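Human:
I keep going back and forth on a fold encoding question. Comparing notes only helps if you start from a blank page. Show me how you would write down a chain together with its backbone fold. Write it directly below this note and I will take it from there.

Assistant:
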Amino acid sequence: MRHSLKYFDKMRCLRKRSAVSFLGVLVICLLFMNLYIEDGYVLEGDKQLIRETATHQLNPERYVHTFKDLSNFSGSINISYRYLAGTPLPRKRYLTIGLSSVKRKKGNYLLETIKSIFEQSSYEELKEIAVVVQLADFDSAWCEGMVQDISQKFAHHIIAGRLIVIHVPEEYYPVLDGLKRNYNDPEDRVKFRSKQNVDYAFLLNFCANLSDYYVMLEDDVRCSKNFLTAVKKVITSREGSYWVTLEFSKLGYIGKLYHSHDLPRLAHFLLMFYQEMPCDWLLIHFRGLLAQKEVIRFKPSLFQHMGYYSSYKGAENKLKDDDFEEESFDIPDNPPANLHTNMNVFENYEASKAYSSIDEYFWGKAPSTGDFYGIVFEKPIKINKIKVVTGTEDRQNDILHHGALEVGEKIVGSKKGRQCTTYLRLGEFKNGNFEITDVEHKVLFDINCMRILVTKSQKEWLIIRSISVWTSQMPNQ
């Protein structure tokens, strides 16, 4: 009898534990079903993904295929937007500039930011941009006041369809109180950064179909002159290469450029992990999950942080981007090309790293006479200017001590081994650098190739820091 009672007690305990386990699993399943209800399915491995995100240790290689296959993430988030100023765009633009703004305890820089965007753009550039401002504060009086100020100062841009002001009602926001306190952040800090993630998600969702590309700015930013033209040149120079995010500032969520077709996935991603970490950390993980392992950042920076007080509690924020240049500068065209060299390349400092505006370089071991760095353009081009810089500030002797620059025509060979049969020498390197202008007046043929030729062996290694090519006309134009 005693054994029977023990047996039944044991069975009751097992049933109780089983019920608790079942309920726990059921709650987790319901939470995930609720999270993905619009997409209609639950992603395998997301619990591990959330755990790794919470410790800032996402594994991009492990999850890249899962995340890239989220076809349903191309759909928009089902929320209603209030148009506070402006109307839906009548046509698609080249670039949308998105800003999200909230009431600050000290200072307000939104109007100056909008002014800088428009003032630093030419009339032709203005035709290709749309500016979307999201007033993300729940204080309706503040929103109304800001709309009045924006409408008065930028009425002609609103009428021209270049400026839209939107707002998402508070009812569409997820829970913002009692969130997880990762990184020992105080509760109000967690609430602030979590809401900011949701603000950005809603803004990205709205902008997904407005243009070909999208750049995110903060509401306290100054722009460089003709920044759109610079962005277009960079995008053209990246044709044929894979990228998720191009960065035009090294600060926060400023100057981050995306393909518009990636915005729905990014919006869902920010909502999925809105309470886990700040948005700039999440963006690093998003880029990695879509298989862009390295940062692609361009210099000089096109956008500068100008605010003195943060939107969080009015705290001081004196951060500045020391790579920013406000005046117009001449970014090279660097037409699409195949790059190759017969030099002994050191580690991963391959040839492609010299032919871009990215802060990287080519590094080869001591070159010998006749060694070369070759560029074969995808299409024949007319060149106006060429500039090559070798060596770096910390390795000033790793320059090309004896070399020449040549351009060629008449391509032969297969796609992988293409080269020119005839070359014309344009000049010699001096102190490791080479620069020439008015090339189209000195070279009578369309240029297929360009090469840097070592004319005398050297014991020092060679760093090619940058190769810049300006065309007098783009191919097929």
